[in-house]
Design brief:
Elements (H helix, E strand, L loop, with lengths): L7 H13 L5 H11 L23
Length: about 60
């Protein structure tokens, strides 16, 4: 990376845009996972065992 950081104004704009974007429901995530044939791990990655090479298995 170049080491450049966005300006505070750009960061605030990004936060406003994110706040206005629609959120996916759990039901929608499950439908997409079914279509793609994958399992979505509902646990928080920050609380994972810390193993970088651990990948959730597909359903």
């Amino acid at each position: 990376m170049s080491g450049l950081k966005p300006s505070p104004e750009a960061q605030e704009w990004g936060k406003r845009q994110a706040a206005q974007s629609p959120r996916w429901t759990d039901q929608k995530w499950e439908r997409v996972a079914t279509i793609l044939g994958v399992a979505i791990n509902p646990t928080d990655p920050e609380q994972d065992s810390g193993s970088a090479d651990h990948m959730p298995e597909a359903a």
